[in-house]
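User: I'm new to structure prediction. If I give you an amino acid sequence, what do you actually give back? Let's try with this one:
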Amino acid sequence: MTYDFDTLVDRRGTNAMKWNVEPGELPMWVADMDFMTAPAIVEAVKARAEHGIWGYTALPDAWYDAYIGWWRDRHGLTMEKDWLLFATGIVPAIGSVIRRLTAPGEKVLIQSPVYNCFFSAVTDSGRQVKDCPLEYNDWTQTYSIDFHKLDTALSDPAVRLMLLCNPHNPTGNIWDKKTLAAIGELCARHGVTVLSDEIHCDVTDPGVDYVPFASVSEACRDMSVTFIAPTKAFNLAGLKTAAVAAPDKALRERVQAALHADGVGEVGAFAVDATVAAFTKCGDWLDGMRAYVAENKRLVQAFLEKELPQVKAVPSKATYLLWLDCSALPGYKGDLAHFIRTGTGLFLNAGGMYGDAGRDFLRMNLGCPRSLVEDGLKRLKKGVEAREKVY
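Assistant: Good question. You get back a string of structure tokens that encode the predicted 3D arrangement of the chain. For your 391 residues, that looks like this:
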């Protein structure tokens, strides 16, 4: 079946956070797509709404089966029903688990540049961030992990958890099995539990898959908690639906207590039906969206090479986000996103929000119709060229 990803859907006036901007501005920032939700999900939500009563909701077997079947068939990981716990969202679930598995003042390791909510999930919980930045090759625009530095960072006795972003936001990097195995080996050696945020796992380029951390080995499986959801792949963030997978029974009991204590394990009626529809009926829609986004990435790459060579796109195999290396531009880049937005209306994420390692970068959301991408590129060029005249 062919799906329409080109039609512009007006989201202004719908309380969409992404589009809560001034007239004439083009928001390409928060990780929220501008495609109409898959038809089968729309129908499932409509059917549930038409029932007219939306009271307290229990998790049906269909919810568990949907997750288990999707991860088995799509990602080669066979999960058990007992592993899965409902959560209203990945970010609140991560915060709850951090507070349950660590004591105030202890440390959580992250690898910047990384999703900004990793920082706040740690600090808002009264814990400390232990940053072990990724290694960036500015010649090839690629990221890797320095395992000697990671080993040293994990050896800090105050580090109790590692927050892993797999696939990685904002770089679009997919960690291979060898890399994940090495992370697991080091964390096991130092008694550090891995919290793996895998929310972007389904948004990969066509023909490319990610490796679930828990699938790498029995050790990785039993020392980890994985956070998964249909929300990025199918744009369902507003329905508040996610899952936490914890294979080890003792660890899972602590995770479950955390979710219950913080009230983030309460099931929503629409969340269940939308999730089941997504994972059982919408594979074709997702594949179409992945192909469309991959073409958006190629469009940006070609444009930058021809029209704006001073800005480099970091090669991306996952997410609908593109990480733009602006280090070759003159002057201080910390105000670059603001300058571009003020002068052109293009709203991008400033790289510094993902840690100091991202200060020379911008993050651009390509989960939108191609006409918006083309508009965004014109504005980006205009903004960069205007700024160059200042220096």
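You can read the tokens as a compact description of the fold. Here is one thing that stands out. The chain has a mean pLDDT of 97.
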